[in-house]
Amino acid sequence: MPANEGISAGVRTGELALERKDAELAVLTISGEHDLSTAPNLRRRLDGLIDERVSTVVDLSPATFIDSSILGVILDGRRRATEAKLGFAVACSNGSGAVDRVLDVTGLRSELPVHARREDAVTAASGNSGKSPP
Amino acid sequence: MTAREFRLTLPATAENVIVVRQAVAGLGEVLGLSPQRLADLKTVISEACNNVVLHAYEGEPGPLEVSAEPRSGELEIQVSDRGAGFQPRANEGDPSLGLGLPLIAALSDSFEISGGAGQGSRTTIRFSYEAPESANNGTGVDAQAPEALEMAITPGELVKPVLARVMGALAARAEFSVDRLADTVLLGDAVSSSGEGDFADGRVGIKIQDGDGTLGVRVGPLVEGAGERLLDEMDLPGAGSLRSLTSRMEVTTGETAQGEKAEFLEFEVTS
Question: In this structure, how many other beta carbons lie within 10 angstroms of the beta carbon of residue B177?
């Protein structure tokens, strides 16, 4: 791959994609690089889902970089969802080195926990909201 | 500056952290870091910059200064501000919930925060090329935020990867198309081909102003005649001229930081 193509792919900040599994469950997929500059957008999306009373799966699998501000937003989202008695789960399968590393070093892989398969996270989010998975 | 050192000064904003991250990643690639260690380096530098962005200037504009110098088997990184420095109060207003410093501590070999009232703060990080075994208060904010990003890079192998990544990050942020982003990186590559003797103070000086879908780049200070030589090198035999990728490219005259007359090569790229 020409060097410039690699740079073009690597320098773009991250994107968020929302997939509604049904009226009560959504998967928010995080791709690319996410940091302090994108954390407010992620927070708005998570807050919006919780305000709509939608259980949420955050899928980090396509993310290539996340920093502590993104971890903070995810932890805060889980707290708010729990308080609202909504399901919340995190998935990361075949994560990038940078994402895997921060999840391991901070202990959040077991603390959250982080599911290795999106399907397991969907089941967990449905289960911890007290509803059956779609 | 020593061999392969670089310095970067830019406004302390959340949007600029990715620019620093890309610049330091370019350095890490030149040093041959493993993908895992490169990922660690990106995390460490991002967390150190986050602290400046979040806490140094209390919402006011101010400079974020980063330097990185390879030494035997390790990289010494300094991240500095001229503001209040980051506060030791746990978690207050910190979206990372206090995870930033533990991440730096876990992924680097050592780090030290220095500074004091009115002095800003400086985080000095020692980062070995191999992973470690285990995985300030200030007041007066009189620093002027730079209007643009300013870099000084030791001539040589470091220039091309660092400049390409920085220009690419700025172009991406300005929402350049993939083609225009590639054009911008090509222009960075062309500037990287300039030699040590072209620069008046022996280091590759680059100033980049971004905004409104435009990147304005100033290269220099250059020695007399170097600007025209760089312009000529933009003409590629049989492949047209890189000048056509810009909306403006010209040699200008100005002054060095020491007030001496010098040449600069200036160009603009638009989205």
Answer: 11
Chain B stretch 169-198, residues whose beta carbon is closer than 8 A to a beta carbon of chain A = 169, 171-173, 178, 181-182, 185-186, 189
Give the three-state DSSP class for A15: strand
Task: Tell me B132's DSSP state.
Answer: P
Residue-averaged pLDDT of chain A: 87
Inform me whether the C-beta atom of residue A11 falls under 8 Å from chain B C-beta atoms. Answer: yes
Q: Which residues contact A6 (CB under 8 A, 6 or more apart)?
A: none
CB of A41 within 8 Å of a chain B CB? The answer is no
ipTM confidence score:
0.87
pTM of the model: 0.76
How do A63-66 and A114-115 pair as beta strands? unpaired
- Give the number of other Cβ atoms within 10 Å of residue A13's Cβ: 18
Residue whose pair of structure tokens reads 């940078």 in the numeric block: A98
Say if residue B11 is preceded by a cis peptide, omega within 30 of 0: no
CB B127 within 8 A of CB B109: yes
